[in-house]
Amino acid sequence: MGGTGTLKAVLFDRDGTLVVDVPYNGDPQLVRPMAGALEALDRVRAAGLATGVLSNQSGVARGLLTLDQVASVNRQVEQLLGPFDVWEICPHGPEDGCACRKPAPGMILAACTTLDIAPEEIAFIGDIGSDIEAATAAGSRGVLVPTPVTRQEEIDAAGLVAMDLGHAVELLLAGTPEEQGAPA
């Protein structure tokens, strides 16, 4: 995993990481930032790093959401948390076998292309195991910020676990996970 690259971007999972998870949310009025999300993003932006959001949106494949609804919710996320340099959405279902749906690395690699940076120069912060698996598969750094829905085995498998979003950003800005002595 890329401890050798200089950190140039921090990418975030949307639901359960940046905003409170509302399953299959198509209503911008239901968007609520996670505690500390704006402050964490402000720190990343102040450090001169690019930001991005990667989100599995299987509700599109399931017919529960339209891409317009997803875009509307994403616009509200930006209204509340500021602009992001890149957005990557996977509209596929788990059975579709696409290369973009986390834990596959496709969205991280697409963000790298958009930002013109290498995967080892990116960190990805998420709340479940598939977020960390996607980062690992891409060759990026992953930081898990557990929520009540995060399974214990996902926490145990993660190389770097943070108490909250602010702590995750603090760990990344302080140095590589290798330098931090990642908790078990």
Automatic annotation (TrEMBL):
Enzyme class: hydrolase
GO MF term (any one): hydrolase activity
Source domain of life: Bacteria
Record has Protein biosynthesis as a keyword: no
Compartment list: Cytoplasm
InterPro entries: HAD-like_sf, HAD-SF_hydro_IA, HAD-SF_hydro_IIIA, HAD_sf, Heptose_bisP_phosphatase, Histidinol-phos
Enzyme Commission designation: 3.1.3.-
Alphabetically ordered keywords of this record: Carbohydrate metabolism, Cytoplasm, Hydrolase, Metal-binding
A Pfam family annotated for this UniProt entry: Hydrolase_like
Record family assignment: Belongs to the gmhB family.
Listed name of the protein: D,D-heptose 1,7-bisphosphate phosphatase
Species annotation: Paenarthrobacter nicotinovorans
Lineage of the species this protein comes from: Bacteria, Bacillati, Actinomycetota, Actinomycetes, Micrococcales
